Protein: Cyclic nucleotide-gated cation channel beta-1
Amino acid sequence: ERVGSATSLSSAVINNRLQELVKLFKERTEKVKEKLIDPDVSSDDESPAASPTKRAPAAAPVPPPGGEPEGDKPAGDKHYCEMLCCTFKYRPWLDRLKNYHFPTSIDPLTNLMYVLWLFFVVMAWNWNCWLIPVRWAFPYQTPANIHCWLLVDYLCDLVYLLDILIFQTRLQFVRGGDIITDKKAMKENYLRSQRFKMDVVCLLPLDFFYFKVGVNPLLRFPRCLKYMAFFEFNNRLEAILSKAYIYRVIRTTAYLLYSLHVNSCLYYWASAYEGLGSTTWVYDGEGNSYIRCYYWAVKTLITIGGLPDPKTLFEIVFQLLNYFTGVFAFSVMIGQMRDVVGAATAGQTYYRSCMDSTIKYMNFYKIPKTVQNRVKTWYEYTWHSQGMLDESELLVQLPDKMRLDIAIDVNYNIVSKVALFQGCDRQMIFDMLKRLRSVVYLPNDYVCKKGEIGREMYIIQAGQVQVLGGPDGKTVLVTLKAGSVFGEISLLAAGGGNRRTANVVAHGFANLFILDKKDLNEILVHYPESQKLLRKKAKKMLKKNNKPKDEKGMPGDPLIIPPKAGTPKLFQAALAATGRMGGKGPLAQLRWRLKELKAMQATQVSAGRMATWLCFVRSKTRASAGGVRKLRCTHLYALLSRRADPIPPKSPVHQRSPVTSHKARTHPGEEIFSKSSDSLVTTRVISTAQEDEEILAAEILEKEEEEKEEK
Structure:
């Protein structure tokens, strides 16, 4: 049990330490990412320090076997919550509220807390805008419920006041290109603005007139002048929504409903002024007054017709104003709704227009249906996967710095893994990220074909590609997935790019990033050190890929004398013992024979592997005049050495020609040979069974030179 408890204790300690290391690695990763985005954040030698308050919940202290934890827990570790088998640390909301410090300055463009506060301000503004006309026109405000109306009214006034005193005086602003965060300067900027004047007007204390004229809701009409907060909230909310057009449609619909709401209130007021039920035109006082008046307002503004004719002059004037206002308001709402819907579907309209133009072009030139179907498939997939046909059209409007930030977040993790670019200038990689372009390949599309000149590098963003090879060119050698890179060596290959050695086919839909060789060369002009490094790496990678097969363990060129198997260790020990004893028995003779075979093998490797054999068949033909012989030579066999840059042998032309002896008649199998003065060329003439044929063999020896590898 003691051994088991000690083992479990050590395992727990190791586990805790691993958790701490994982947390440190995560913090280090975040630090490096921030540094990549903004190099001025920290220096290269700076390492992130782990906060003890953050490390505490990562691993709770392990108590000794059979006892309580040693030492006291920190003050921040006394709040724990048990859930199932795990223990989570939490801080009470009261402590969190006590320790919260309100910011001294607020960024109105990016601060979500400010957007949330604007929501409450807009809710208070909507309360005043919608309910002040209702309370003024309809008899919904009575002495029995007046305290409820006043309570909500003054809560809205409190929101207005807090907005003026706390939030508006802390908003940052731009002056001369600088973001001003000074508290005094922000307060002075707000006090001089037009918004401050409107905020003061909307909080005029007209409520004191309640003591004279009673609680009249019209005295609160200035509260509706805080419309600037409403429009600011719209701008901030649309900036953070992914589908802002939905909110625009809702807002435009609310405009129309509010117009009908105000018109219904005015109709009830006009009916009460004329007398409820006094004529056929006014409201008769039956049913729900607000619903019936709202129905009348809808029919009037939309000009549906079917309304009773006005009887009095007041009714006629009121109806004429209603018609004019209704036509104008309704046309404005319809036009605004059209603009909102048109802006929401602008991308879809552009996509459909491009599709229709392409189909019309293909039909005009009678493109085959198979090609047309693939083009349509490309349009459909590209639009549904990206939401646009060309990403560069969206990014071209952004400043260079913002395009770089987006490119780093999207592509840096993939490009940084390419071995060819490791160690290069970081700014050079950033410039290269901005040159990447996205291309979508359909299933079974060839990304590149064998034998093509490689001028691009490919990075798989999504999908898979297959490398095909084999005798038939259809065998799948490897499948590359998202994040893989291929074709990077062709960017720096000389002579217009190296040729592709295999076919690469898209397996399903594949989205690839492509970097052209031309773009990379334009970038490397400004980074000569990185260019030298890339050239050196490219040469090494090409040399590694072009290694002969025998260097990788595969059988190479056949040897004239095949290597012998190694001598067993026990047999070598016996031979060594015999040599020390000086014996001259069978073992000593075998030892001598092994040494001789090793020497012969070494000679064969040094001289025989560098030999070039040339065999010719000489045909004898007798000429009718002059006895001239005509030679017909056929190249039969050549064995070349495996050196990367073999030095051609010395030409025997500059040496003394070998002298051969001729006989009037030679027998089959008889051999005649001759050597040059420097013993580099040996010539043999061998007779054959046929009378008019002989075999001419020439052996040229070359001294072996040692190759020096570049370090």
